[in-house]
Description:
Elements: E1 11-19, E2 29-36, E3 44-49, H1 51-56, H2 61-70, E4 77-81, H3 87-94, E5 100-106, H4 112-127, E6 135-138, E7 148-159, E8 162-173, H5 177-191
Parallel strand pairs: 5-6
Antiparallel strand pairs: 1-2, 1-7, 3-4, 3-5, 6-8, 7-8
Amino acid sequence: MSDGRTKERTGMGTAARIVMPDTGDTLGSGHTRLTNLALPDRAGLLLQRAPEMAMSRSGRLVDRRSRSVVGGVRADLHFVELHRGELARVALSMARLAYVRSVVVCPVGVSPGRTALALAVAGLLRDRRPGEAPVVTCAVCPPLGDGRTAVPHEVRVDVDGRVQYRLVWEVLGWDQIPGWLADLRQAAREDG
Length: 192
């Protein structure tokens, strides 16, 4: 996993095994390809839509603008520019939409590699949630504002035999915390 910026290549990237130690080696782990991104020097959100929605809306302005960030390989990913102070609020609002699967907050200056990791972790978290509820993540703790918090998830990333430990932040509204804690208790009961 590279922390350097890449402007020329977008699309499918490096194969990686991601393990979230706080969930054990099985439930919270997966093999994935980290998506190559070319993030602009502006804040925004990376939205992952449901596959059926991604296929039905190609050619729209947001799709054309997103190609420079995510490339043409991932039709389900879209980048939307936002003001820095609006990132967490709008991300949580977008996650409530039926066709959104994941939202990654992209503050200015965060590396494309770390953002790709946040996208992969969002997928792992979503897959283990009841009803595969959408997840909002960020490579760094983003500016949150009132009524929101961020929970760090330590992840172990293995790329070509090199292991790195990183934090990926999950953004939650205060109204989501009771449900999040209930899911955590349920997962602990099932594991132990």
